[in-house]
Design a protein that fits this description.
This protein is mainly alpha-helical. It is built from 6 helices and no strands.
Length: 158
């Protein structure tokens, strides 16, 4: 049995048909303020070698107590696999592996001859300037000698 459709405005309004898709719009207000516990940007937690060794020592002491290791892992926000990795590194004596690796490009070691090279270049430039000045003075002296009719220097003829 098919019911006839009623197109009465009162019935349509009561059923919410005057709204989009028959739904009434919902308004959700924005939160008053961000939670102070949340950081602006999440950061990955890093552990120093001392932190890792401290946590491993604490876990080693708590091995006999039921649930103590789980409590430490939850408190520190770790996975048990991290403890396994740290134990393996400690057993291998890889204390360098426990410290965070320095990232970025390697710093170039200064060349021990760089200072001497810079000094030689400055000295070479200074001597070139003195030579140019001296050659200019000699050229002027030759031109003055020609203008005055003096005999040319025998040093120039080679």
């Amino acid at each position: 049995m098919v019911l006839p459709q009623i197109k009465d405005s009162k019935t349509l309004t009561a059923a919410g048909a005057d709204k989009e898709d028959g739904r009434r719009p919902t308004i959700v207000s924005a939160p008053a303020a961000a939670s102070p516990e949340l950081l602006d940007r999440p950061r990955r937690r890093t552990f120093t070698a001392q932190d890792k060794l401290r946590i491993l020592a604490e876990v080693d002491r708590a091995v006999g107590v039921p649930g103590a290791v789980g409590a430490i892992v939850r408190r520190e926000g770790l996975y048990s696999s991290a403890l396994s990795d740290w134990r393996r590194q400690r057993a291998a004596g890889a204390f360098q592996a426990l410290s965070p690796a320095k990232r970025g490009p390697k710093t170039a070691e200064p060349n021990p001859l760089a200072a001497e090279l810079a000094l030689s270049r400055r000295d070479n430039l200074r001597l070139k300037q003195r030579l140019e000045r001296t050659e200019a003075i000699i050229e002027i002296q030759k031109k003055v000698a020609v203008l005055l009719g003096l005999p040319a220097s025998s040093d120039d003829e080679s």
